[in-house]
Write a sequence for this structure.
């Protein structure tokens, strides 16, 4: 099976060195956003403050991926205490939303497994605004106000910014939802009625006003003021059931991260409803293999990773749900003995014909960016609309689109992730953090955005660094694979250009359904990652210094930059 190659001339092959720095670093998918984070660090802010500044600027410069109309998750590493904390900034379904009312309204038909992606019923309460405020309040330096932190984004939105090439491509590719006549305010996200081209200067005054309201009034400006009313109005105009009460009752949760150990490294993820547990499950399975003894990106290596991740997805596509509504067997899933049982299913000479969930009960389109400050604190942050512009619906006078995260709910009543009122859906966005198991010191602040690619990306870049000794930029540059989700199941394995044709053929012979080669702009399927690692290095008089090595994914517009 061949994959659409996209634009084969799209450059990915130029060499990029890792960025090394001593006093902090920001890595994001957009240069202007990276610069905003550095401004905050220079002004005395810490990693958490800078992360929120980057999140806001990415809303301005990459609204086709992210925004305040979506959700956010954060992992924060406290260098002094050597602990990792987390914020779950995902929203919940309307208190009025049930499957019965959707059936009565004709929104879904018998046999449908999820909501239509463009339906207003997919709009859960947007959690990003609260997550931004909570990140600053809980983890910030206390030196800067929210207004200081949001000011770079406000300035970009008011004064204008040049649109970068990758953002322009996806703005155009996915921007038709903004041009639908019934989307009255979609034009706020366009330039003269059309998606901006690379190099065009875009101004977003309504988004600037939204950020100014948030900066001066905090969370209430978004969840109780004119913005809340505008959100509810546009949702209800399009048949949705989200209410002012739903927004007023929203809150983030401060969840304890979950972890597993892999070859002396603790890998931290947010717990369900996030899908980070998928990466931890796969790492537990892979720990039983001699990964270093395999040739990188050989058919043996890729087959092993594909099978481990497929088995992990088989579990999480069933068990991952809102733990406040259903029991999620986290400890059973992460048990090393359970991983051994799943590992035993893998045949080195043949792909499994189907991937079924196990029984772990023992007793029980997106942006990602990374920031480390001079004190060694690290913030791993991810913010998303889900599918590009999400639903594409723009609240009046607000300058952002509303996400479609509710499309991840299952419509099967027996499923743990079944749609229910005031419930969080299965969530794809996952920040990553890793520390040395023995010392608790930071190993890497990392992430790879991109729907169901994210845990796959986490595993691939971690193995690149841990097992193959790559620096962050090398780890991101390496060609990747992506197991495609088809409905709630698993389908083709996409292979990026750079993996050899011989390996692609060998994987087909093993029974994998391979799409190869994937190149050009279609490489977006492999996600866009950012990584910052910390290493001790000798300095003057034999003193050891912390040196931060960082990398930024070549599949995006961005860069890493340090102080």
């Amino acid at each position: 099976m061949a994959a659409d190659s996209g634009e084969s001339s799209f450059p990915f092959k130029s060499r990029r060195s890792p960025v090394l720095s001593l006093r902090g670093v920001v890595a994001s998918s957009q240069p202007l956003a990276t610069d905003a984070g550095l401004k905050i660090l220079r002004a005395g802010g810490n990693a958490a403050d800078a992360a929120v500044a980057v999140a806001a600027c990415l809303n301005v410069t990459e609204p086709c991926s992210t925004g305040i109309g979506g959700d956010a998750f954060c992992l924060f590493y406290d260098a002094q205490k050597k602990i990792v904390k987390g914020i779950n900034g995902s929203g919940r379904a309307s208190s009025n939303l049930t499957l019965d009312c959707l059936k009565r309204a004709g929104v879904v038909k018998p046999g449908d497994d999820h909501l239509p992606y463009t339906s207003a019923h997919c709009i859960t309460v947007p959690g990003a605004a609260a997550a931004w405020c909570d990140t600053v309040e809980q983890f910030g330096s206390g030196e800067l106000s929210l207004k200081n932190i949001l000011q770079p984004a406000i300035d970009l939105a008011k004064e204008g910014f040049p649109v970068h090439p990758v953002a322009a491509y996806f703005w155009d590719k996915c921007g038709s939802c903004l041009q639908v006549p019934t989307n009255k305010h979609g034009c706020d996200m366009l330039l003269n009625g059309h998606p901006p081209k690379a190099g065009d200067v875009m101004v977003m005054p309504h988004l600037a006003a939204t950020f100014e309201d948030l900066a001066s009034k905090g969370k209430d400006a978004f969840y109780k003021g004119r913005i809340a009313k505008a959100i509810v109005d546009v949702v209800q105009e399009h048949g949705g059931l989200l209410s002012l009460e739903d927004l007023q009752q929203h809150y983030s949760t401060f969840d304890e991260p979950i972890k597993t150990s892999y070859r002396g490294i603790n890998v931290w993820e947010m717990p369900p409803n996030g899908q980070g547990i998928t990466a931890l499950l796969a790492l537990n399975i892979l720990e039983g293999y001699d990964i270093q003894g395999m040739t990188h990106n050989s058919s043996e290596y890729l087959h092993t990773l594909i099978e481990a991740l497929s088995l992990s997805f088989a579990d999480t596509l069933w068990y991952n749900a809102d733990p406040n509504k259903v029991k999620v067997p986290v400890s059973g899933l992460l048990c090393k003995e359970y991983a051994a049982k799943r590992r035993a299913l893998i045949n080195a000479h043949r792909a499994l014909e189907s991937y079924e969930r196990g029984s772990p009960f023992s007793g029980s389109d997106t942006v990602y960016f990374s920031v480390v400050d001079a004190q060694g604190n690290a913030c791993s942050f991810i913010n998303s609309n889900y599918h590009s512009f999400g639903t594409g619906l723009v609240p009046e006078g607000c300058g952002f689109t509303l996400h479609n995260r509710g499309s991840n709910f299952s419509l099967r009543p027996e499923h743990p992730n079944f749609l229910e009122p005031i419930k969080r859906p299965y969530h794809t966005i996952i920040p990553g953090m890793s520390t040395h198991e023995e010392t608790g010191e930071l190993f890497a602040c990392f992430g790879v955005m991109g729907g169901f690619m994210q845990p796959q990306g986490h595993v691939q870049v971690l193995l690149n660094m841990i097992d193959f000794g790559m620096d962050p930029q090398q780890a991101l540059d390496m060609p990747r694979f992506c197991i495609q989700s088809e409905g709630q199941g698993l389908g083709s394995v996409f292979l990026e250009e750079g993996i050899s044709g011989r390996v692609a053929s060998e994987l087909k012979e093993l029974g994998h359904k391979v799409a190869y080669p994937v190149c050009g702009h279609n490489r977006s399927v492999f996600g866009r990652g950012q990584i910052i690692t910390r290493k001790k290095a000798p300095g003057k008089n034999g003193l050891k210094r912390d040196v931060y090595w960082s990398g930024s994914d070549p599949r995006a517009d961005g860069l890493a930059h340090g102080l």
Notes: The two ends are 46 Å apart (CA to CA). The chain has 17 helices and 18 strands.
